[in-house]
Amino acid sequence: MADERVKEIRLPSAFEERMRRMLGEEYEAYEASFRKPRSFGLCINPSRISPEEFERIVPFEVERIPWIPGGYFYSDQVRPSRCPLYQAGVYYLQDPGAMTPAAYLPVSQDDMVLDLCAAPGGKATAVGNRLGENGFLAANDISIARCRALLRNIELAGIRNAVVTCETPSALAGRFPETFDKVVLDAPCSGEGMFRKDESLLEDWSEEKSRAMAKLQRELIELAYGMIRPGGLLLYSTCTFAPEEDEGTVGSLLKNHPEAETLPFPAVEGFVPGNSAFADGEPAVRNCVRIYPHRMRAEGQFMALIRKGGIKAGSLPEEQKGRKTTAKSGKRTDKKAVELITGFFREAGISGLSGFPPDWARLEIRDGKVYYLPAVHGSRIPEQKLQGLHFLRYGLHLGELRKNRFEPSQPLALALRRKDFTKALSFGLEDERLKRYLAGESIQTENSGESGYTLICGGGFPLGFGKQTGSQIKNKIPAGWRIMGGGDR
After folding, report:
1. 43, 83, 166, 239: which one is catalytic?
2. Which of 56, 105, 256, 284 has its CB 3.0 to 4.6 Å from that of 262, i.e. a possible disulfide?
């Protein structure tokens, strides 16, 4: 299940010398991995589908990734991004190594989670897909361009209780001390583990860059640690092998915070323990894990799970136990607007959002756009702490109010689960009409139905809306969501 086309790669001499010292007799096998095809992976969205159902309906060959629940290898000869299941948010495409850290972060359904450097969204969606009704995901990136890609993937996954921000980590740390149950820091790095995947990283590599990255990582890990509640967890990961960026950064945090402790990962064939020699002899870094491409079917990765000293991870302070986290918006939603929105839901046969009944008290309207606020709004995150932050999205965009009518959004369709609706037109995954619909064309049905908005599904999974008149369905997928070319692999 891999591309047979392999290019010869020349490694920088300084990098080669250091890897020889790190790997010893294993170096030759590592160097040989550059002459072998890399593996391609996808991870299913557990809020949409089970592994058993996915394997039954996926229209191309897949092979389970043994160390990742819901992870699969696929061949480079297929285009999974053009499959309707991808367009429905049933799975996310990601290198098997890159998807590993988030798979081993324990997540409770009511957790508040921050992904500090989240774009393009692989780890953020993996965590957000496992949160429940009162869980909350804050996904941040400092780059506005990367944030747009992050937002797209959050919406594609149908994650409802999420916000996407474009802020510096220091700005967030100043507002949210000891706030989150879990923080994910997939830190910017020298990218050594991705040399086989992206040759531009190889061309840009230098020892000076690695040292600069290590300095930045030590600043970021301190900021991330400060935003975790006592007893909470920090997942630190990189896609590099550089000791100063990996064990060195974790060791620096442990030295500055004696109350912190690293937690072990499960014993998995191919996982390589961290090396305490890279962290001034700190034994706790042995709980960290390295992934090498000559040992596993994945690109390079490093990960560490760190618990902040204090109360037990996942437990709430006494004053918050038993408290229902409902939204409290300071902006009133007028009665007429609520009637239009709820009327649309009834007519379209929609009774839930992401598997839960809607709480209409969580609606907020901004310039005609309708949002469904996260459950934590106004309770565990006071509104004054949110003012002035640069949000790309706060809550789920449901649609817009226009001339006494409500028009649904694409994110609304993707936030629906199969038990949320009773009316829909569903086409087989290989139906040509479905392909035309995803390309933005109008389609025909066999039978005339009621006029108005209709949810369109592929294999039973929501893809978007159409407006039906007789047997014709006018396409309502926004231009930016249509399949208009080759697509990514």
Report:
1. 239
2. 284
